[in-house]
Specification:
This protein is mainly alpha-helical. About 60% of the residues lie in helices and about 5% in strands. The protein folds into 3 domains: about 100 residues, Fumarase C, Chain B, domain 1 (Orthogonal Bundle), CATH 1.10.275.10; about 200 residues, Up-down Bundle (Fumarase C, Chain A, domain 2), CATH 1.20.200; about 60 residues, Orthogonal Bundle (Ribonucleotide Reductase Protein R1, domain 1). The protein has 18 helices and 6 strands. A two-stranded antiparallel ribbon has the order 1-2. Strands 3-4 form a two-stranded parallel sheet. A two-stranded antiparallel sheet has the order 5-6. Helix 6 packs antiparallel against helix 7. The longest helix has about 35 residues. The chain is elongated. The protein starts with 17 loop residues before the first helix and ends in a 7-residue tail after the last helix. The protein binds arginine (ARG). The site of arginine (ARG) has 8 residues, from helix 6.
Length: about 475
């Protein structure tokens, strides 16, 4: 086997050992950064023309070669070899094969430290938008179900115990609110990450490539990094991205957990479409919510990626260190996990059938209208603590007889407390309970409708952000 052509060989007397290369070589998945590295190389070539380091015609030959390398990679015509240490080495090798010594001119004024930081930033800025679009697919699915179930009554839980009736749409949209914040976090992260590391030239800034503000603009950034050491040595933008994806993973996991419960034999709130459920190889009757379970499981990876990045950063001297190469595996794991999870969750939610009658029946099980009695008394001037006592007495009375609040006769109400007159009956329906909660953010159908409309306009805004982007996309 020929010895690897590493970019740093010149001062070494022997070739790198296979053990070193085995450890040092980038994982295969890192070569996905090639398209971003090529666009950045193209911007760097223009910078070198501006600085007078290469002739205009040479710059054009380099641009053409970079473009053809991009096409060939896409067509699967060229591949990294087992001796290419990383994506930058791979691309320089091909460029030199095609252009000879001219290819070697591109290394002036830059280092793999800035390239590595830049490539991943460009990748994440691009992918965060795709991720947002995938998440908006799930949001549309939630909104579609919510729209149909604004008037569907459901038992609302606290502590997983029956609490108060709610609109089923309200419960669904509670999840949509969290996901909407996840996308806002991505947008906010993107604003802070829109600074180009190019021009750092490993550490101190370049004496050759002297207008990093121009290459920054060409790559869709707001400007160059303020500090060349920070440009190559920081990864808080990766850690922050991974926090956003970990939080999204946790939010997905909480939705998954509910879907899993709702589709259980005990709940019977929803039925999953056959295309989004799995069976058992031994028990023919089974229909399992595997998508929900896998999503819950995969959220562990997302949390793990954040932990990896934070742990790799802790205690690093502040400049480039090889430890920083851990950023890619962590980031790719998060991106790949969500690219698989989000469309599956969206499809499962969009196609699930809601058992409206069953939800309505369960909406009043477990004395969920007890708060209505206490509220009714409070409206008549009874201190809430006393109203609570009286209502508790009613619940005990019903429990002893195995009946519900709605089964009590006028006389029985009056026996428990003479202030409970016949007019209380009109409050003791789940419809009345839900309609009464009509302040901003409440579960009353009209409020839920408005909530949905506001969410939809936010989705529209978020979609625009995800679609309009000046940086490189692949
Ligand atoms: N491939 C490396 C990374 O992913 C960049 C190489 C920088 N290496 C170096 N020895 N300075 O971070």
């Amino acid at each position: 086997m020929t010895a690897p052509k590493v970019l740093w060989a010149s001062r070494f007397r022997s070739d790198p050992s296979p053990e070193l290369m085995n450890l040092s070589r980038s994982e295969t998945s890192h070569f996905r950064l090639a398209p971003y590295d090529l666009v950045a190389s193209s911007a760097h070539a223009r910078e070198l023309v501006r600085s007078g380091l290469i002739e205009k015609a040479e710059g054009e030959r380099i641009q053409a070669a970079l473009a053809s390398i991009g096409t060939d990679i896409q067509a699967g015509a060229i591949h990294p070899s087992s001796t290419d240490e990383d994506v930058h080495t791979f691309l320089e090798r091909i460029l030199m094969e095609r252009l000879g010594p001219l290819g070697g001119k591109l290394r002036a004024g830059r280092s793999r430290n800035d390239q590595a930081a830049n490539d991943l930033k460009l990748y994440l800025r691009d992918r965060s938008r795709r991720m947002a679009l995938d998440l908006l697919g799930l949001q549309e699915a939630l909104a579609h179900q919510a729209e149909r179930h604004i008037f569907t009554l459901a038992p609302g839980f606290t502590h997983l115990q029956p609490a108060q009736p709610v609109s089923f749409a309200h419960q669904l949209l509670a999840h949509a609110q969290g996901f909407a914040r996840d996308i806002e976090r991505l947008r906010d992260w993107d604003r802070r990450s829109a600074r180009s590391p190019l021009g750092a030239a490993a550490l101190a800034g370049s004496a050759l490539a002297r207008q990093p503000e121009l290459s920054a603009r060409e790559l869709g950034y707001d400007g160059p990094c303020e500090n060349s050491i920070d440009a190559v040595g920081s990864r808080d933008h990766v850690a922050e991205f991974l926090f956003v994806t970990a939080m999204l993973g946790v939010n997905l996991s909480r939705l998954a957990e509910e879907i899993f419960l709702w589709s259980s034999r005990q709940f019977r709130w929803i039925e999953l479409d056959d295309a989004y459920a799995t069976g058992s190889s031994i028990m023919p009757q089974k229909k399992n919510a595997d998508i929900a379970e896998l999503t819950r499981g995969r959220s562990a990876r997302l949390i793990g990626s954040l932990t990896t990045m934070l742990t790799a950063l802790k205690g690093l001297p502040f400049a480039y260190n090889r430890d920083l190469a851990e950023d890619k595996r962590a980031a790719f794991e998060a991106v790949d996990t969500l690219a698989a999870v989000l469309p599956a969750m969206a499809g499962m939610v969009r196609t699930m059938r809601v058992n409206v009658e069953e939800l309505k029946r369960q909406a009043t099980e477990g004395f969920t209208l007890a708060t209505e009695v206490a509220d009714w008394l409070a409206r008549r001037g009874v201190p809430f603590s006393e109203a609570h006592e009286i209502t508790g007495g009613l619940v005990r009375y019903c429990e002893d007889r195995g009946i519900g609040l709605e089964d009590l006769s006028d006389e029985e109400f009056a026996t428990v407390d003479p202030r409970l007159d016949a007019s209380i009956k009109s409050c003791l329906t789940p419809e009345a309970a839900v309609t009464a909660r009509n302040a901003y953010g409440g579960t009353a159908p009209e409020r839920v409708n408005e909530q949905l409309a506001r969410l939809r306009s936010l989705f529209h805004d978020q979609r625009k952000w995800a679609i309009h982007y000046d940086g490189p996309r692949t």
